[in-house]
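Entry: ABC transporter ATP-binding protein
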Amino acid sequence: MLVMDGIVKTFFPGTVNERRALAGLSLTLDEGDFVTVIGSNGAGKSTLLNSISGRIAVDGGTISIDGRRVNRLREFQRARYVGRVFQDPMAGTAPNLTIEQNLALAARRGRPRGLGRGLTRKQRERFREELRVLQLGLEDRLHAKVGLLSGGQRQALSLLMAGFTQPRILLLDEHTAALDPQRADLVTRLTQRIVEQGGLTTLMVTHNMEQALALGNRLIMMHEGRIVFEATEERKRRLTVPDLLAEFQKIKGATLDDRALLG
């Protein structure tokens, strides 16, 4: 479903601020894979997601989604293949639009636009059914402005919207990091449910090592733009947080921030 081959990305080349974010990275995800990504700050985790979504252009290598090379496609063109939830709950929704308007935009992602009825009764019923899954009472607040929702509610809505059109790849960029523990646990459980029910191929970046071990069937560790450790499903089931810390300690110069250690 996803093939990345020899991906290279350097920021500010030829300057004193030059930084190699991805250094010949290669990664393959089969359909239905749920891969969690951990690594120190500056390891290239967000750059990895940005290169898949088309937010940034890579300097070298190829990216293919569902058998189609997408290097030349811009971010809005890749939207038909890629769904994404960001760390900031404010980033995935339009605060001045209502819940149903946000859902309507998500439902049309990647499709041709034209003149026609914005929302039908059938669509509203579908929205209500989808929102009931969140168990947050949002199905009775379709006309509420999204900007009035709490951070946890907005992130849950963003997650629902990202999976709304069954994207070929779902990208989760530390999507629970900005939430309090109770809301983070809710969104984590919703993530597992939405991914499993939709059979979505998913790549999730997280600083929380317990979360990285609990979710998904594969795990990779990044450092300085490379994958330095990978655990398949069988090995991942046997891993513990101390095991991951031991792997970090093998990497010369790698450090973990407090969020990773305490998460």
